[in-house]
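Q: Can I see a sequence and its folded structure?
A: Here is a first one.
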Amino acid sequence: MTKKKIALIMGGYTGEAVVSEKSAAIVAQHLDRDRYEVHKVHIYPGNWYLEDEKGEKYPVDLNGFTVMKNGQELAFDGIFNIIHGTPGEDGKLAGYFDMLDIPYTTCDALTSSITMNKGYTKAILSGIDDLYMARSMQLFSNLPDNVPMVLDQLRLPYFVKPNNGGSSIGMSKVKKEEELEEALKRAFKEDKQVLVEEFVTGREFSIGIYKTSGQVTVLPATEIISSREFFDFEAKYIPGVSEEITPGRMDEREVERVKQIAEKVYLKLNCKGSVRMDYFLEKDTGKFYFIEINTVPGQTETSLISQQVRAMGMSLKDFYTDLIEEMWR
């Protein structure tokens, strides 16, 4: 059997590049080397290169996403994308690979760009049965009028977050009126659009969803118990700051309801590959509140998707094979 040549792309143009490199190291360990020839490709601003097993670096020709290695041109059959944030998660690379007709493991350009925008994603998902959204406002510039307008229209406490950011960078929880101005400043440092949401009190979960052969699979959810006010960057990436329980504590009816909602979200957004959706089950009512969706979720050994795949009794090797094979269907 001729092995398919897979470019495992990692890095990116944001602070999340470090997480991407860690995710890629785990993916590389678990890819089926009997089926695939794996090439690690690093993508950084002005510096795209393939790195071989010996640490030798070869520049990528952006005209066709090819590499000249030992006098021969290396082209790829498919892309395993593990770049969080831009340009891997926001649709830029998806559009580039579409133009070159190279398949990839993640969502298409349109879905990727829409899902990076929390406000637009919520607008598309409104109308799904049993799915609730926290009341929110989308702000497009940091104007003095924003503070009184938010206070007038939304009820404290709030989450203030960059609309297109990842890993909870620039996000704040606002409990008092006087904290709002500073929180907006912090969020606008990260993005030109900011989302202010009313806080939902409840238990927080995160759930993986993927599709193979036309069949959507919903992984067991992870319950997140953070010692922080919310699941921020430190809670996500510093061991011991949050407790993660997989499968999360839900009764059978809740599990079934969440599964149905998760599948509808995946299909309505026309997702591809593996995505991760964060949600709250509201205290007292048990209502399902959508938080956000990640279309290139982390794949480190302790990442939520990795935990959920193992909880389902599946190996990461089989999971990654499913994601890769889906590219050519």
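Q: Show me another, different protein.
A: A second, unrelated one:
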Amino acid sequence: MRARRFTVEPGASILETLRAGGVDLPSSCEEGICGTCETRVLAGEPEHRDHVLTDDERAAGATMMLCVSRSRTPELVLDL
């Protein structure tokens, strides 16, 4: 798959933005409690808002929940 760029507007989730752009991703609760939308982070720093990852997993920044988490950096590269 080719690389694509998306801009996540204030008030929108990463998951909503990707779906609106035609990216089909799994999800279930959309509240950050189930882990279904967990996605690998290739670059950038996530701002974790989920209730799934441990403190150590959050600190590592290797994955994030797309339904509720945001980005602390201007760009976030995800393994979709």
